[in-house]
Design brief:
Blueprint lengths: L12 H15 L7 E3 L11 E7 L23 E3 L6 E3 L3 H5 L4 E8 L5 H10 L12 H9 L9 E4 L16 E3 L18 H20 L3 H18 L14 H6 L4 H15 L3 E6 L8 H25 L6 E6 L3 E2 L11 E2 L3 E6 L7 E3 L1 E2 L6 E3 L2 E2 H11 L7 E4 L2 E4 L13
Parallel strand pairs: 2-8, 2-9, 5-13, 5-16, 6-7, 6-8
Antiparallel strand pairs: 1-17, 3-4, 5-12, 9-12, 10-11, 14-15, 17-18
Helix pairs in contact: 5-6, 8-9
Length: 424
């Protein structure tokens, strides 16, 4: 029995428990990770697509979205006004400051996980790591719940980083990872030059025959999964929608607006992918683990983040895509207020910031606050499950839904409710 307050008792009542009991019994007969139980009541989706800007390493809230001018912990960066009265950003986010009227900033995020691996897992899945289950990442859940298996492009694309995979939902919902130079055609989407269409078809038939033989020997599920993967790959190879990965046709002024960095150009690709119909795109900006030389490195990183994030929000707005696209910018935790002897800031999950835009988020909202030195949350603490639940709700995903992984019922969101103050 789940502990009091979880999805499995207080939210759905006795009848729901009976349904879940039946689902658990049936789940033992179903493939691992198969969705087996749900609760009615999903809110209409506000967002069709999700773009995650993942700041790997954990950015300092004080040096980005929650400056503390004049405080001993404030560091050398100045604070600048934004297009939202009373909201200040770091001086190294000037373009994003202009777009702040489209943003919602949470200044009171708090987490229990202070290591990179555990923090990344928690912020991607909404669950703390456990040895008994490998939870799916947010992108995998979006793929499972609102993705279209027949769509030519993957439902979940990761640009510049591997992200968190499908977990118990399986490889079908893991990200399509693109590590190559952004804006260029995806590698290996075309057969080798010496393989003409007839020869390619022959190879596909041979593969199907081998899979059929393997299935007869007892590997039915593996054979089906292999052929389904090949079918999806071929559908993508033959689709004109793959031009969304290529930015050559974009005006030079547009490409310049995102910044001359890999991260900036990947953000432009992300805009093109959601425009083409992809449901979730994650773009990674690495380097935020600034235990030393924090201020030089953070300034350089904000030099990549600022134009890219600002151009993405502006373009989505101008193209009437912002209302249907949720943008989420975050890392695995924040960084400590104290400056260490190496001019760095250390891990600090106790208080950090997250920025969102579009997709049903209340524009210009500022939620919560930290104390004058940025050490702890002083107003309206926001938990990771609350953030996760908010994103899922905006995507039209029922946060009370329960998966069965093996014989274990696992809720999509663990004890988190949507953040009412941020919803339009």
């Amino acid at each position: 029995m789940a502990e009091k307050g979880s999805c499995l008792d207080c939210r759905i009542g006795r009848r729901g428990l009976l349904r879940l009991g039946l689902a658990g019994a049936v789940g033992a007969l179903l493939p691992r990770g198969l969705l087996s139980a749900a609760v009615a009541g999903t809110a209409p989706a506000r967002a069709r697509s999700l773009i995650v800007l993942w700041l790997q390493g954990g950015p300092s809230h004080i040096d980005t979205f929650d400056p503390k001018p004049g405080a001993a912990t404030g560091g050398p960066f100045k604070a600048i006004s934004t297009s939202v009265p009373g909201l200040a950003f770091s001086e190294h986010l000037p373009r994003l400051a202009e777009q702040a009227r489209h943003l919602a900033v949470i200044r009171s995020m708090t987490s229990s996980e202070g290591s990179h691996g555990r923090g990344s897992y928690y912020l991607h899945t909404g669950h703390v790591p456990t040895p008994t289950a490998r939870h799916p990442g947010l992108g995998a859940i979006v793929s499972k719940e609102v993705g279209d298996p027949a769509f030519a492009l993957p439902s979940f694309v990761s640009l510049g980083g591997p992200s968190v995979g499908g977990g118990f939902l399986g490889q079908d919902h893991s990200p399509f990872v693109v590590q190559s130079k952004p804006g260029k055609p995806v590698e290996f989407l075309s057969p080798p030059k010496d393989v003409d269409p007839a020869r390619f078809d022959a190879r596909m038939r041979l593969s199907a025959a081998l899979d059929e033989a393997f299935a007869r020997s007892g590997g039915v599920e593996d054979a089906r999964a292999h052929q389904a993967l090949f079918a999806r790959a071929r559908r993508m190879m033959e689709s004109p929608l793959t031009k969304a990965f290529v930015t050559d046709e974009e005006p030079q002024a547009v490409r310049d607006a995102y910044g001359d960095t890999d991260f900036g150009q990947r953000c432009l690709v992300a805009r093109r992918l959601v425009e083409a119909g992809v449901r979730c795109v994650e773009v990674t900006l690495t380097g935020w683990d600034t235990h030393e030389d924090n201020f030089t490195r953070s300034r350089e990183l904000m030099g990549a983040l600022d134009p890219a994030f600002a151009a993405l929000v502006r373009e989505l707005s101008e193209r009437s895509l912002l209302a249907s696209t949720l943008v989420l910018c975050l890392g695995e935790f924040g960084r400590g207020p104290d400056i260490n002897p190496r001019e760095g800031r250390d891990h600090h999950p106790k208080a950090f910031s997250v920025a969102l835009a579009g997709g049903g988020i209340r524009p210009g909202a500022v939620l919560g606050a930290t104390d004058p030195e940025g050490r702890a949350v002083a107003e309206r603490p926001v938990s990771v499950p609350e953030l996760f639940s908010t994103v899922a709700t905006l995507m039209g995903i029922d946060t009370r839904k329960v998966y069965v992984a093996g014989d274990r019922p696992i809720p999509i969101v663990n004890k988190g409710k949507p953040i009412a103050e941020l919803l339009t």
